[in-house]
Amino acid sequence: MTRVLGLFISALMPVLKVLLMTAVGTLLATDRVHILGTDARKHVNNVTFYVFSPALVGSNLAKYITFSTMLKLWFMPLNVLLTFIVGSALGWLVIKITRASKDLRGLVLGCCAAGNLGNLPFIIVPAICKERGSPFGDAEICSAQGLAYVSLSMAIGSIYLWTYVYNMMRIYSSNDSKGDEERHQPPAGETLQNPSIPLEQPSSSVDENNTNGIEINCSDQHSDNKADELVLGNIKQDLQMVGTEPKLRGLFATSSIRMVQFFNNIKHGLQTVTRKLNLSRVFAPSTIAALVGFMIGTVPPFRKVLIGDSAPLHVVEDTVYVVGEAAIPTMTLIIGANLLKGLLKKSGVQYRVVIGIVVARYLVLPSVGVLIVKFAVRFGLVHHDPLYLFVLLLQYSLPPAMNLATITQLFGIAQTECSVILLWTYALASIAITLWTTFFMWLVG
What is the CATH number of domain 2-190+279-444? Predict the structure, then answer.
């Protein structure tokens, strides 16, 4: 009992720190203080998004991730993906059970699928390492390894958020909000519509009365690719070389045209995917910084030049690390300021929808996460590092990602409802995260 109480206190302290910093951010955003007003939040958020977060992710990955550690951490990308997949399934159940309105379905799925894999783990993990009752050993080693794990988690989560969740919410917004394309113009470089690209079907006709035995009808082809026309021309030439047997020529022509059609379908499919995916969002600054950090940490020549006190350019690493330290408090202040909108706005979101999201994220999803991680440990998919297992488990118990508010703004749907849902889920996160982190530390320790 004493050990459990010590673990509970160790889990409670980081959550209290998050609550205090969030409360400060909310206070700074009030009309009376008005330090973090709308314009200020926009500028501070840009600095955090483009400078602080990339510096934090890149510096920690470069410093603590090596090629050998990457081989040990291969399960984390899969684990983060499982949080999104299981969360999506739970979101679908929430929609069916609560009968959520059509304009909220994309938001419900996003809230259940995407967790806050960014600033909250950055605060919770190092703070737990520094507590006396921590089961993770030396505080400095624990903090260093924990920041590396969390940085990797943040980078992977960002990729999944802006590919999987972003497009899932885009599809629901285009299907459920008729006329949104006319009312809300997408930002520059964004494609919020879902155009269907018809795949042209090459046509061929066989004229048995023709002396040549077959005729390829290309007059109905409206291809915009000169390469396709060249291929069809080559087919005509090949037909002349096949012979005069009608059946053989017909078989050859049909198979050749189907091959052209197959590659045309692939080409149009890739064009569709490229048009729908927002690559500028997928490769966000933090993701790019993670790739740079991987390269520096895993390539020995780069590591010798930049990492370590004896490195010739270690001042670059130190500078980036110092800049990155500003990311954690800044992101938490912004969360508090953004949650103020949920207090001030009234929405038509049903209480049963909020309760369904809370149950899915704080009860069912962490329970499923425990089973997944225990299964991975049992079959040797992950190495038995208590801190690593703790981070894997923590990924299942976090509140919804704050970037969901940005996505709803991009599509112009359910913005007020998103603020209210985030307010309640983050208010209850203090209780849920405290209890789950206590259980996780007991489980891995």
Answer: 1.20.1530.20
